[in-house]
Amino acid sequence: MSRIAEHPILGPLKPSGREVSILVDGEEVIAYEGEMIAAALMASGRRVFRYTEKRREPRGLYCAIGRCTDCVMIVNGIPNVRTCVTPVEPGMIIETQRGIGRWGGGDHGIH
Amino acid sequence: MVFTDVAVVGAGPAGLSAAIECAEAGANVILIDENTKPGGQLFKQIHKFFGSREHHAGVRGFRIGEELLLRARKLDIDVWLNCEVCGIYGGTELWIVKNRRESRRLKARKIILATGATENAVAFSGWTLPGVMGAGAAQTMINLHRVIPGNRVVMIGSGNVGVIVSYQLLQAGADVIAVVEAAPRLGGYGVHTAKLRRAGVPFFTSHTVLEARGKESVESVVIVRLDEYWKPVAGTEKELEADTVCIAAGLTPLIELAMLAGCEICFIPSLGGHVPVHDRRMRTSIESIYVAGDIAGVEEASTAMEEGRLSGIHASASLGLYSADKEEELSHQIWERLDVLRSGPFGEGRRKAKEKIISMKSMTQ
Amino acid sequence: MENEQNRLICRCEEITLEEIIQAIDNGCTSLNEIKRYTRAGMGLCQSRVCSRLIARIIAEKTGKPLDEIVPVTARPPSRPVRIDIFSPRGCNVKNS
Ligand SMILES: Cc1cc2nc3c(=O)[nH]c(=O)nc-3n(C[C@H](O)[C@H](O)[C@H](O)COP(=O)(O)OP(=O)(O)OC[C@H]3O[C@@H](n4cnc5c(N)ncnc54)[C@H](O)[C@@H]3O)c2cc1C
Ligand code: FES
Ligand code: FES
């Protein structure tokens, strides 16, 4: 779970934008502007994006193209945002979603 | 409401090729895709393509994608990105949601659906744990986003997607510790399989994944041998230390828009399951709607491009942009190439399956 | 090992193999019926992930051929959209 700096076919990494800082569950994470949130999270070693409503089980990236909705998190207070198809913006506030999530985030939805 | 001659849904190899043909014929065309960039699956395909020169053999998928984009740009094709097509009405009207917020309506005289396919799942115990993902998801992470999704990977499925993505994982710097195949024989093209063997990746035929274990994400994977009835053999379980499981169990055509539109559907297992019935012109049972690429039966990028062109040519001709003779001539050239692509041990079955669909269409007419 | 019956089939709605088998035992033979009975297939992914798995279970349990188990009736929106998009001011909703 790290960035591929050098690739035998694709060559050196060309970042999608400038380095920016985002806040993930209160911790600062360095990401590239314009890259998908899920990519930035995985590059920082994070794999658990949310916990389910019924069984409270961890979930993370599954399809990576916006189809399965398993990667949803609370982004800038909005729940159910598919992080694999949502680009990073500077200063984004991202939170692990619990259950169906709650608008405004913060309290982490259901307990 | 916006009006256009042709709306193409999906900007993968099929949709891009379709839009290019329409624009070259002189039609007004709008190409719509839900992603931030066009290209569909093409930009993830960093391996070299097979086939003859005309089919871009030896060229890597992402280079073909760059070529297509360049042509689309030269033709000034209107590309609507970040636009999901959510509804289809009366065979000519699309409901589109841009940036997940903004509703738009588009009326087109012809619609070409090139929405591609979606990956199949395998539901073993623990398949919802973080670290279990589609092979396509891993491919997207390494080749598009340049992030390794895991360090020690178990691949389920030895078909082309399974072996290609396994090799690409190695190229990205991950370890593929096992390729697990339920069938007694390997499924993919020999060239790709051989590359993996040379790299020392172990293959387990007649095996499946029984369970992914771990607390917050995958920590180990239990595989088991299958008997001739595909039932797990007790006592043959092996626990492998792994942090990732990739599922490459085939693709299913994404036909929901065709179903919404009321297109007739048929079931062809070798092409991925339910597909819209279509004729040699790629026209569905609804006159104004065409299909091309994986939605019309899962094949490869090279066939998707040819089908895209075919649908574009016929949609343009139906708008009066080509004479019947010209239409026939252009179509014939593409069919010759499609027949070549659909030959050989892997292609022959697809050619027969395609013929079956086309014969259904002529029966219903 | 996790109990086999407890294995999830529908990721979105967290519906287990056992619940789906129960639905079939109670007479469900189509994806639409299973969906109404168990909610399997009613999730955010719009059954894109689980419908094939459920179709296979129906086929195995009932002997119904796979070609007769058609995908769930499509209804717009074919994608999850935010509810406010249906309001007249849908376009004005801010992102943050
Ligand atoms: C993981 C994976 C690996 C593959 N590897 C190979 C390979 O190595 N070699 C090979 O030849 N083939 C491969 N394929 C097969 C591949 O699907 C085809 O090669 C080819 O990409 C099909 O082209 P297409 O244009 O039909 O679909 P796609 O390339 O999938 O394009 C469809 C596009 O439509 C968009 N779309 C779908 N629905 C909507 C909607 N409602 N609104 C807006 N946009 C929509 C999609 O997001 C996508 O961008 C692979 C497929 C997958 C999934
Ligand atoms: S991982 Fe499937 S929607 Fe993001
Ligand atoms: S997995 Fe069943 S609805 Fe999404």
Summarize the helices and strands and which ones pair or pack.
The complex is a heterotrimer of chains A (111), B (365) and C (96).
Chain A: E1 6-7, E2 11-12, E3 19-24, E4 27-32, H1 37-43, E5 50-51, E6 58-59, E7 72-75, E8 78-82, E9 93-95, E10 97-98
Parallel strand pairs in A: 3-9, 5-10
Antiparallel strand pairs in A: 1-2, 3-4, 5-6, 7-8, 7-9
Chain B: E1 2-9, H1 13-25, E2 29-32, H2 61-74, E3 78-80, E4 83-89, E5 93-98, E6 102-113, E7 117-119, E8 132-134, H3 135-144, E9 152-156, H4 160-172, E10 175-181, H5 190-198, E11 203-205, E12 207-213, E13 220-225, E14 238-241, E15 244-247, E16 251-253, H6 256-261, E17 265-268, E18 273-276, E19 289-291, H7 301-318, H8 324-341, H9 344-364
Parallel strand pairs in B: 1-2, 1-6, 2-3, 6-19, 8-15, 9-10, 9-15, 10-11
Antiparallel strand pairs in B: 4-5, 5-6, 7-16, 12-13, 13-14, 17-18
Chain C: E1 8-10, E2 15-16, H1 17-25, H2 31-38, H3 51-62
Antiparallel strand pairs in C: 1-2
The complex binds flavin-adenine dinucleotide and FE2/S2 (inorganic) cluster (FES) (2 copies).
